[in-house]
Amino acid sequence: MKNVAIIGGGIAGPVTALALRKAGMDATIYEAYPTGADGAGGSLALAPNGMAALEIVGVADAVRATAQPSTRSVMTLANRTRLELPGLSDVGPLHVVRRADLYRVLRDEAVKQGVRVEYGRRLTRVEDTTAVFGDDSRARFDVLVGADGVHSTVRRLIDPDAPGPKWTGMLALEGVSSYEVPEDPETTVFAFGRRGYYLYWRNAAGGSTWGVNLPYHRPLSLAQAREVPREEWMRILLETYGEDVPGGDLLRHTPMTSTQVTGALYIMPSVPHWHRDRMVLVGDAAHAPSNSSGQGASLTIESAVQLARCLRDIEDVPQAFATYERLRRSRVEKVAARASRANHAKTPGPVMQKLMPLLMPLMLKTFMNPDKIVGPEQRYRIDWDTSVGAAAHLA
């Protein structure tokens, strides 16, 4: 396999390229935008299973160096109720990292290992085993990997009737405040305010980072969201969260220049076809759970590694794709289902807002067993050194 074309240079693309290199295969990344994603995006949490997958491709230590560990989670409800969220003691912390920093680490390592990245190459169509780009340039491939996100072009090429992403009804915004919340830096607080959901943590270097899932009347692309002046976004944020504690203080101590909107939040419904011929999907193009899952980036990294493992061990490409899907579909769809249930709580109606302080403590005691709910997710490990060839006949 001499020519693996990876469409998309965000998170999934570089991890796929690194995993393929480890498996003895070369790949070229084709990125639609004219430059990389330096400085773009908010923060995300990498779960222990995601960090374990990064160990396989040799970048976990570099990611840890730029991340902040989170060992404890707290939930607050309507400024009145504060609940300690149960966690797992045997898997290690979450690692909170800015998306731009994660991207930089992955890209730099991919380039260091000889992966070629071509910018300004927006895929428009595929002719047999040739990718055709918007400037009419072409690239031959043996395998084409769609790592091009929730608005994937490759997904439509595989299946013109494939479902598109579903908007959650919320936009994502983030900022860094000079207000220091009275929390340990390794504590993340998930807050259900009077009119919306937000989260925050104290930065080890000073100040606090906050992020919101802002209820909004229509989805906005990143470009559309950035056309709105930051002053207008701050007005909307204060209107929504200004009465919350500490939401209001966090916002009032946030410089306009540190406030960024990252656009609409989407989830992917179940995608019927992950592959066709020599094209295959990885990451958000195939499975993008709500950010409520805490697993979006980690599942993307896992899938990239498992795809490379299957291509390494199974010579027949369609069979390798089928095995990859068998290894991944059930896992990612279980996580998506859990996150979908949690997502409804982010935009509760007036009645549910009043009931949540009463219901949540009961749910934590009776239903929210971390070993049962997140244990299988966070303890998952890919056995890179074991061949998947023997499982091919089950796919």
TrEMBL record:
Keywords: Monooxygenase, Oxidoreductase. The keyword Oxidoreductase applies. One of its GO terms (molecular function) is monooxygenase activity. SUPFAM superfamilies: FAD/NAD(P)-binding domain. Residues 3-338 form the FAD-binding domain. InterPro entries: FAD-bd, FAD-dep_Monooxygenase_BioMet, FAD/NAD-bd_sf. It comes from the Bacteria. This is FAD-dependent monooxygenase. It comes from Microbispora bryophytorum subsp. camponoti.
